[in-house]
Design a protein that fits this description.
Blueprint: E1 22-23, E2 43-44
Antiparallel strand pairs: 1-2
């Protein structure tokens, strides 16, 4: 995955659209930093 920080109050951001969401069972996902490829996948949340 890609860790990025976006400044929410920036005047350059017009709108935010949510494309997909993952289902995880813990709040801190630091363990994903060390994983690569298929091991780093998380389940997609179904609406």
């Amino acid at each position: 995955g890609v860790e990025r920080i976006f400044p929410m109050n920036s005047p350059f951001i017009d709108s935010i659209t949510l494309n997909s969401e993952g289902k995880v069972r813990r709040a801190k996902l630091y363990y994903l930093r060390a994983l690569r490829g298929k091991a780093a996948r998380i389940k997609k949340k179904v609406y």
